[in-house]
Write a structure and sequence with these properties.
By secondary structure, the protein is mainly α. The protein contains 8 helices and 3 strands, in the order αααβαβαβααα. It has helices spanning 2-8, 25-29, 32-39, 58-78, 103-121, 128-138, 154-169, 184-199; strands spanning 45-48, 82-86, 125-126. The chain has a 3-stranded parallel sheet. Helix 7 (154-169) crosses helix 8 (184-199).
Length: 208
């Protein structure tokens, strides 16, 4: 979906993917497939996304996420690319069994998790989770999550892609004609949310 948005904005992009379901960044550090994917081309950007729950717990992010992130960032930068952390969205109902009783509390901890390592390493952040919270706050009736309360719907994926458009190109996605099958009004709202989240204060996300 990001590639479709990019083409609609007049940008030529090529994308690759190394994303086994449920994998952690530590799994990727130990995967020859991932390392080969990083080194397979002269990428401009390599997006790093942790498993959805790990960043929300201080102990696990410190013990597993951060060491793996440091290693992967080193690999990416060694290949001449810019790493970007994909700051993900929280579960719709939080993670109550781990002291995160609702969506907002889990999102807050995920934000801390990603921004902590991003600031340490000076790495840009794609603040998708921030954009979800802003969109949800303005319109709680948005259908961002699938029924499992974790994976994204088309609306959620579209919002994430719009955030990445703003991060990668430093341009607003507002006005792009690729709507991903969404009602025009909904797509335009999500475009605006992404633009506001990323571009009002890009330094917040380590964006030049």
């Amino acid at each position: 979906m990001f590639a479709e948005l990019a083409h609609a904005g007049g940008h030529r992009v090529e994308t690759g993917l190394a994303a086994e379901g449920g994998w952690t960044l530590a799994d990727h550090v130990n995967s020859p497939v991932t390392i080969d994917a990083i080194n397979s081309s002269k990428w401009d950007y390599v997006v790093l996304q942790e498993q959805s729950q790990i960043p929300s717990i201080e102990q696990t992010r410190t013990a597993t996420m951060y060491p793996a992130a440091r290693e992967l960032v080193s690999q990416v930068e060694g290949n001449g690319a810019i790493p970007v952390f994909f700051l993900t969205w929280a579960h719709r109902d939080g993670w109550p069994e781990n002291g995160l009783p609702d969506y907002q509390s889990m999102q807050y901890q995920i934000d801390i998790g990603y921004l902590g390592i991003a600031q340490e390493l000076g790495v840009p952040v794609a603040p998708v989770g921030y954009a979800w919270l802003l969109a949800w706050g303005q319109n709680p009736k948005l259908d961002l999550w699938q029924e499992d309360g974790s994976h994204p719907t088309e609306q959620g994926t579209y919002l994430a892609a719009c955030v990445f458009y703003a991060v990668i190109f430093r341009q607003s996605p507002e006005g792009l004609t690729t709507l991903a099958g969404l009602p025009k009004e909904t797509a335009q709202f999500l475009q605006q949310i992404a633009a506001t989240t990323v571009l009002v204060n890009p330094a917040q996300w380590n964006l030049p």
